[in-house]
Amino acid sequence: MTATPVATHPFVGLWVTADGRIRQRLLPGGRYTEARGNREGAYTGDYRVEGSMIYYRDDTGFSADGEFRDDVLYHAGMVMFRRNG
């Protein structure tokens, strides 16, 4: 499966847990930043999208994945929803 160029894929933007505590911004160009509570930039790193799957590698080398289903991101036990902003 070929990775979709991240600058053009439809998942770029802000994803937030229902309580707003965790906010993940998928940036064009394959970078992300994740805020936790009041801690902006708690995690940063690279990501790639292959179909409905997303693969992360943070700047410390930790890796994780997630899946987009029906415009919801399921990632590391979290359920994240798209938010404008």
Automatic annotation (TrEMBL):
InterPro entries in UniProt: Atu4866-like_sf, Uncharacterised_Atu4866
Pfam family, one: Atu4866
Name this protein carries in UniProt: Uncharacterized protein
Gene3D superfamilies membership: Uncharacterised protein Atu4866, PF11512
